[in-house]
Amino acid sequence: MAITMPKPDAGILARRREIASAMRAIVPGEGTVDGAEEMRAFETDGLTAYRQMPLVAVLPETVDQVAAILRYCHAADIPVVPRGSGTSLSGGALPLEDGILLVMSRFNRVLDVDFDNRCAVVQPGVTNLGITRAVEHEGFYYAPDPSSQIACSIGGNVAENSGGVHCLKYGLTANNVLGVEFVTMEGEVVRLGGKHLDAEGYDLLGLLTGSEGLLGVVTEVTVRILQAPETARAVLIGFPTSETAGAAVAAVIAAGIIPAGMEMMDRPAIHAAEDFVHAGYPRDVEALLIVELDGPKAEVDHLLARVEAIALEHGASECRVSQGEAERALFWAGRKAAFPAVGRISPDYLCMDGTIPRKELPRVLAGMKALSEKHRLLVANVFHAGDGNLHPLILYDASKDDEFERAEAFGADILRLCVEVGGVLTGEHGVGIEKRDLMAEVFGEDDLRHQQRVKCAFDGKHLLNPGKVFPVLHRCAELGALHVHKGTLPFPDLPRF
Q1: What pLDDT band is residue 483 in, cutting at 50, 70 and 90?
Q2: pLDDT tens-digit profile of 292-334?
Q3: Residue 118: C-alpha distances to residues 142, 176, 232, 233 (Å)
Q4: What percent of the chain clears pLDDT 70, i.e. is strictly above it?
Q5: Cα(257)–Cα(237) distance, rounded to whole angstroms?
Q6: How many CA atoms lie within 13 A of 218 on its CB side?
Q7: Would you give the distance in Å from CA 400 to the centre of its chain?
Q8: Cα 37 from chain centre
Q9: What are the protein's UniProt keywords (predicted)?
């Protein structure tokens, strides 16, 4: 499955020096980067298999600068790719050769912490973990915690609707964002939501969260903060097969137990993580569950006993409960370091992201084994078992023959399997470019057209992050959003690919 990007506009490329000069007038000094070597740092994101240099990279510091950049690009028909920390695993922040890369990393301040209303107002460049660090002295924290939380920015979390190991109980980014300020492609500054619990009218905040940079550029985020639970304990549970572990996951949820986190790793991932972190994971099991319960101590103790009983009924060979905060943190350290740990045992890997109904875990795990044999590549499984969000890591060596092409095909087949059992293409990484050409596996043509009509309402020229999410880019006129006068389209040069 060869992934292509829109053909760059030769006219824009020819004006590169002029455009860089205009950007430097808006963001002077080191805020505008147009040297070939300096821009190399921005040529890719977390999906490093794909690389492309931007036309110019711009790092604004104020909302006025962001608005001015977007107004200029809108008037000059120049594409814009918003970028946070660049940790996207779906290619969502991959630059365009004829586009401005709008890097929001300088928006890195915590603007307000309101413990009375249990919320914080932050700029989009603040790291996910940085929010917790800003409020933990009063016993609060920010619940969504993707494994990349030490590096990923909250603006990127909003763009991808990121989750994490505790999203089973506490929700994804969408469940923890109360408001945003964003700038439209025309340079208009808009506020949605705020410190209040809910807003009137259409849920535009929900629409913007997970929109992957296609609708606007976020410049401020109001998030919900929670008080840390009285007690939190985790249990490591080993199983003889991945299928029995998957069945145990479904049984725990069916029993009405909602753990704070419920993660699963298979043998390759267990060994890689243990070699890297030394978390005390058992090496003689085929699958490992990490289940965390939190709340009042009596409730946690009771639920731990129930989870252990269910695990033993499903053939668990080992159950070990954390005996203190340090040990609980160590259990999670291994899981959160699984991605870099796997990077030590394979020259390259693709990290996939699909979501399935929990009851289909055994079937999908068995299916991935068959696909591994079909494509002659190994796979290590690390995923959010409680909500069925899979993260298979496909191991390959890009320097060998056709291994990258086989890895791409393997990943596409995994995602098709997810859809086949009633799941979806993504849980938290977004569609980006990675899953763009698989959108038709889930959505019909009418579905995709309706989604693009929403895009047209925010960005009529399709200048924000083009080439991402939609497999075929339709002009707004074709979708009935713009008037065609005497057979002439208002924007005849918009690319289609």
Answers
A1: very low
A2: 999 999 999 999 999 999 999 999 999 999 999 999 999 999 9
A3: 10, 11, 21, 24
A4: 96
A5: 16
A6: 34
A7: 29
A8: 28
A9: FAD, Flavoprotein, Oxidoreductase
Cβ partners under 8 Å of residue 447, min gap 6: none
pLDDT tens per residue, range 23-66: 999 999 999 999 999 999 999 999 998 999 999 999 999 999 99
The whole-angstrom separation of Cα 165 and Cα 268 is 19
Residue written as tokens 């005849």? 492
Cα–Cα distance for residue pair 468/177, rounded to 1 Å: 24
Residue 160 near residue 90, CB atoms below 8 Å: yes
Contact call for residues 233 and 325 (beta carbons, < 8 A): no
CB-count exposure of residue 149 (10 Å: 0-12, 13-18, 19+) = buried
Report phi then psi at 444, rounded to 5: -80, 175
Distances (CA, A) of 191 to 20, 81, 224, 391, 448: 30, 21, 17, 34, 27
CB 151 within 8 A of CB 85: yes
Query: Residue 224 forms beta bridges with which residues?
Result: 119
| Under 8 Å between Cβ of 86 and 93 | yes
What is the tens place of the pLDDT at every residue in 390-434?
999 999 999 998 999 999 999 999 999 999 999 999 999 999 999
Q: Are 328 and 322 in contact (CB under 8 A)?
A: yes
- pLDDT grade, residue 486 (50/70/90)? low
Domains and CATH numbers, the chain: 10-103 (3.30.43.10), 110-227 (3.30.465.10), 231-339 (3.30.70.2190), 346-429 (3.30.70.2740), 443-497 (no CATH)
Q: What tokens appear for 493 in the block?
A: 């040069």
Collapsing DSSP to helix, strand or coil, 187 comes out as: coil
The answer to whether 403 and 385 are in contact (CB under 8 A) is: no
Q: How far apart are CA 312 and CA 48, in angstroms?
A: 41
- Please give the pLDDT value at position 487: 54
165 neighbors 332 (Cβ within 8 angstroms)? yes
